## 1
Amino acid sequence: MALSLQVIYPITDETHFDYDYYLGTHMPMVGEHMGAHIASVLVTKGLASGPDAPPQSYAVATMTFADKSALDAALGASGPVVADIANFTNTQPQMLIGEVIA
């Protein structure tokens, strides 16, 4: 069964997010350390939370995996990636692991 990992970066009044660093340094680091286990990656920049509502998240990174063993291997290799988060944001990322159903 295919699984996904979503990393969500919420916006608050006290937080910041460096998109240039995230795209130019952090995401290549994801590829270097976790990429062998990832089936696909999609990064979405938050623009709005509704027709007339500001975004609630800076970005959402969605990674898909062929199965639980691939997800586990990627998470096992993610130490340097997790340690790098403080270099581009001070928000507390949220994670959602789920079964891909469509």
## 2
Amino acid sequence: MSEVQSEGTVVEAELRTFIETLTDSETYQQFSEASEALKNDPEASALLQDFEQKQQRMQDGEFDQSVMSELKELQTEIADNETIQRQQAAQEELTELLQETNDIISDRIGQEFAQSTGGGCC
């Protein structure tokens, strides 16, 4: 086995260990449980779907006071929905953990490890 193959195998093993550690973490477990609860909550899912549809209508040029009013009402309902708030809080905590991880890796290798391209998650 060449030195490059050996190094690749070591990196892959370390990556598997990192992934297992991440998925076993309390932060990830809370995110996973909160996401599953959201998926299984039809009221919360409907609220988010309605909100996304209203936002899309606004982006498509249907900007009028009734759509704005409906969006504000939905925002209030979303803010009051425990399932949604739990999932959003868990997602924020996981994002913070991943950012800290990125910062540590970046420091170790002397360059930015993962750069945001403006995309989002969930």
## 3
Amino acid sequence: MSAILNEQAPQAPKQRAANIAYDAIENMIVTLQLKPGAPIIEAELLEKTGLGRTPMREALMRMSSNGLIRPMPRRGLVVSQILAAEHLQLIETRRVLENLIVTSAAQRADAIQKQEIMQSAEKMLAAAKRHDLNAFMEADQSFDHTLHTACGNASAVAAVVPLVIQCRRFWYAYQHEGDIEEGARCHLLVAKAVARGHVEQALKSSNGLMDYLESFTRKAIPSAASGN
């Protein structure tokens, strides 16, 4: 996911190292290897990733700005909590940004980007049908990466990326309440509209995807409240 923000010019070695560190830690947080409330222990992260202290600290600073980790008095940095009750507001905000991004991509995507968006969506559906969660998440990230590049609106992408990450973590935590195939089909409808350059259909399919995420969230909130 974080690769979405790193897709412009070739990166210097230090920047690439920080991005690699960010991707590695983000994946640990999104997939709940680092659970909400868990302390961020730099030495352990350095050992797990094999990366240097400087890129690690740069990555942690970015995560703090994205809301994935938070400073706590006398505890240092900890993984932020998943706030189910506030997640509906997050999706409400994400809907506006996604609608802008998707309709812009429908107008601006080139032939290669359209092909890559379609391929990613098809991979999502194939992974969903065989219940391969890792492949699904990888294809989802690739889908967003290309869509965000194609939209040509860096400010919208910068605003939506933290929301997308939080949505992924929420979905991973409560996936038993959702329908992974339905989510993949919603992405495929977005991909088809963008690939065909149909702006109105792109808007409709974007809202359909957000409707799915909203419905999923409403189902998950009781589980979150009960601690399941």
